[in-house]
Give the backbone structure.
Amino acid sequence: MALGCRVFVLAHHRKTTERALSGEQKTKEKLSRNA
């Protein structure tokens, strides 16, 4: 049970990190376009 929960948390964390990274990428592109 705890192992399954841990896997779910890790998968969710990775998804959140990927979304944050792609958001950061878009922000950088927008900034470089405005500059």
About this structure: The chain has a mean pLDDT of 88. Residues 21 and 30 are 14 Å apart (CA to CA). The first helix runs from residue 2 to 34. The helical segments are 2-34.
